[in-house]
Amino acid sequence: MNFPAELKYTKDHEWIRVEGDEAVIGITDFAQRELGDIVFVDINTVGEEVAANEIFGTVEAVKTVSDLFMPVNATVLEVNEAIDASPELVNTDPYGEGWIIRVKLSNPADVDALLSADGYKEEINA
């Protein structure tokens, strides 16, 4: 499994890549493997401020539906339009073309409290 060192991770299997006062969020390689074939991503929080650990959407796989949790306090700016037409991108490229949302961070320093790649690997026993 792949866990890019430049990203931060949550215990709920989301990753976040900070880009100034904005960030891109998706689910980890581990999460997409556990879920199986992803068939739909539902995000209805665009324009809303979502608190850390609150649900910002769901991802639907063939076998299950899983909530998506916001890693830090942030306002949802946009959803990756590519995953509307091709939700399987979350499976095939979870850290690239399969990103899920772009957000405006309420406090960029909050990201420092999240897990490093090594910390996340320990969390999932990888």
What does this structure look like?
The protein is α+β, with helices and mostly antiparallel strands and 126 residues long. It has one domain (28-120): Beta Barrel (OB fold (Dihydrolipoamide Acetyltransferase, E2P)). 17% of the residues lie in helices and 35% in strands. It contains 4 helices and 9 strands; from the N terminus they run βββαβββββααβα. Strands 1-2-3-9-8-5 form a 6-stranded antiparallel sheet. A 3-stranded antiparallel sheet has the order 4-6-7, with no helix packed on it. β2 (14-19) and β3 (22-27) form a beta hairpin. The protein is globular. The mean pLDDT is 96.
Salient structural properties:
single chain, three-stranded antiparallel sheet, 126 residues, Single_hybrid_motif, GCV_H_sub, OB fold (Dihydrolipoamide Acetyltransferase, E2P), 4 helices
CATH superfamily: RNA polymerase II/Efflux pump adaptor protein, barrel-sandwich hybrid domain
Structural domain count: 1
Structural class, from helix and strand content? Answer: alpha+beta
Q: Briefly note the CATH topology name.
A: OB fold (Dihydrolipoamide Acetyltransferase, E2P)
Portion in strands: 25-35%
Can you give the helix content as a percent range?
A: 10-25%
Question: How would a textbook summarize the main sheet?
Answer: 6 strands, antiparallel
Task: Please tally the helical runs, counting DSSP H or I stretches of 4 or more residues.
Answer: 4
Ranges with pLDDT <50 over ≥5 residues? none
Give the class-level CATH name.
Answer: Mainly Beta
Form type: globular
Number of beta strands: 9
Distance between the termini: 8 Å
Order of helices and strands: EEEHEEEEEHHEH
Estimated radius of gyration? 13 Å
Q: What do the pLDDT scores average to?
A: 96
Q: Quickly give the CATH architecture.
A: Beta Barrel
Strand order of the largest sheet: 1-2-3-9-8-5
Organism: Sphingobacterium haloxyli
InterPro entries: Biotin_lipoyl, GCV_H, GCV_H/Fam206, GCV_H_sub, Single_hybrid_motif
Modified residues (N6-lipoyllysine): 63
Subunit structure: The glycine cleavage system is composed of four proteins: P, T, L and H.
